[in-house]
Amino acid sequence: MSKRISLADEQRYRYLQSKTRRHFLKQCTTGLGALALGGMVGCQKSGEEQALESQVDSLLRQVPHFAPKAKRIIYLHMAGAPSQLELFDYKPELAKLDGKDCPQSLLEGKKFAFIQGVPKMLGPQAVFRPRGESGMMVSDNLPHFSTIVDDVALIKTMHTDEFNHAPAQLLLQTGSPRLGRPSMGSWVTYGLGSENEDLPGFMVLVSGGNTPDAGKSVWGSGFLPSVYQGVQCRSEGDPVLYVSNPSGMDGSLRKQTIDAINRINEKEHQEFGDPETLTRISQYEMAYRMQTSVPDVMDIEDEPAYIHEMYGTEPGKTSFANNCLLARRLVEKGVRFVQLFDWGWDMHGVAERESLDEGLPIKCKPVDQAMTALVKDLKQRGLLDETLVVWGGEFGRTPMQENRGGMEWPFKGRDHHTEAFPIWMAGGGVKGGLTYGETDEIGYYGIKDKVHVHDLQASILHLMGMDHEKFTYFAQGRDFRLTDVSGKVIHKLFA
């Protein structure tokens, strides 16, 4: 049996072991080549990491490249991809093709998630009408939204490179379909900082019963310092997990504990120089401040009755409506980027709840009310001019009915589609009442003013005062940016 030693003796042994040449040669030889290679290709500390070492608080307000039109963002991501053909893209010609075999020209060379063989065309499963002074065509599935179309810019010709949910969500939110890149909220917070030192600059709210298919990576910080990752909050139970004091520990003892941990972390940083240690210090201090700031801002029960009626909120429950109201409260308090994910928009037609004629209207009802209330509420409080609201999914839906397994299903649904899907934006310097882009007569392809995912990202950053081509972070031997190596700003969207 090995001899047991005390914790103090083990700590001293480990310390002395790390100081000996024998330990270095034994444990580190395999890393010498990588160390030399990193020096040659530039994988040393980045300028941003060096700047991080000069200050513990990395979330101080930063200066944009030029005067911004928006100061904050609320991004409403409908995870699963809503069908544009039942919401925003009116196609009377598609109705004439309903039930007919899909032309081979629409199938040749195409990849679909579930369509097999020759599917049937599927006409619109909703009634459309012109809305507002702009005459924007919107379906009866969105009666509340129809009252704010003159404050909205609707892009009908978004397109993406990915036809499955997880990679498409990653591409939209991080600029890459692969894991490891920073999310849009992380980029914005890294570039502009936060306006409130007691709250995270990037906060996330989830509804619909599940997280997005891509998981928490869609609000992760990737290779940016982890202080920029999104902090997930909840509208039910404790607003942030583990932010409350444990049983038997008061605020004073918690503060002493955090101070002691941070003294250890400071010594760790002095010895090893890892900037992530400073991030850890900052996060501990932020967590302590959040114990008082978060419960206050997350308590929606003190809102007047007309606001609850306007949003359709139910305090104490998890819902998209509650999250929309919380988003307004968070931007009021200076949170830079608020990300909402609502799961359940994947209308394949394999069950009634996933059908376009039954499930979609039910899904739309609370979301339509709450997202409209959010825009109206921001406007009546004078916040909309400087708050950019973005709504949309990760791709669109096919004009053909899904025939999973080569079968005709009893419910009506559509497969994933990369070539055309909608995004709408409001406030923050966006031109209201604008419909941008045109699709063909059945909504299959964009034929005018197509907008790639990277174009959307470039345009959002531009509204925030950031030049997407200059807005970079050095990592892994090269400069990275949200828009990767492409993207163009769509100036016609701006007021």
Write a short abstract of this structure.
The protein has helices spanning 7-19, 21-27, 29-41, 47-53, 92-96, 165-174, 184-192, 251-272, 275-297, 305-311, 320-332, 359-380, 453-463, and strands at residues 72-79, 128-131, 136-139, 152-159, 202-207, 231-233, 337-343, 387-392, 396-401, 414-417, 421-426, 434-436, 438-439, 446-448, 451-452, 473-475, 478-480. By secondary structure, the protein is of the alpha/beta class.
Structural notes for this entry:
With about 500 residues, the protein is of the alpha/beta class. The protein has helices at about 5-20, 20-25, 30-40, 45-55, 90-95, 165-175, 185-190, 250-270, 275-295, 305-310, 320-330, 360-380, 455-465; strands at about 70-80, 130, 135-140, 150-160, 200-205, 230-235, 335-345, 385-390, 395-400, 415, 420-425, 435, 440, 445-450, 450, 475, 480. The strands form five sheets. Strands 1, 4, 5, 6, 7, 8, 11, 12 and 15 form a nine-stranded mixed sheet that branches. The longest helix is centred in the middle third of the chain and has 23 residues, at about 275-295.
Task: Describe the protein's topology.
Elements: H1 7-19, H2 21-27, H3 29-41, H4 47-53, E1 72-79, H5 92-96, E2 128-131, E3 136-139, E4 152-159, H6 165-174, H7 184-192, E5 202-207, E6 231-233, H8 251-272, H9 275-297, H10 305-311, H11 320-332, E7 337-343, H12 359-380, E8 387-392, E9 396-401, E10 414-417, E11 421-426, E12 434-436, E13 438-439, E14 446-448, E15 451-452, H13 453-463, E16 473-475, E17 478-480
Parallel strand pairs: 1-7, 1-8, 4-12, 4-15, 5-6, 5-7
Antiparallel strand pairs: 2-3, 4-11, 8-11, 9-10, 13-14, 16-17
Helix pairs in contact: 8-9, 11-12
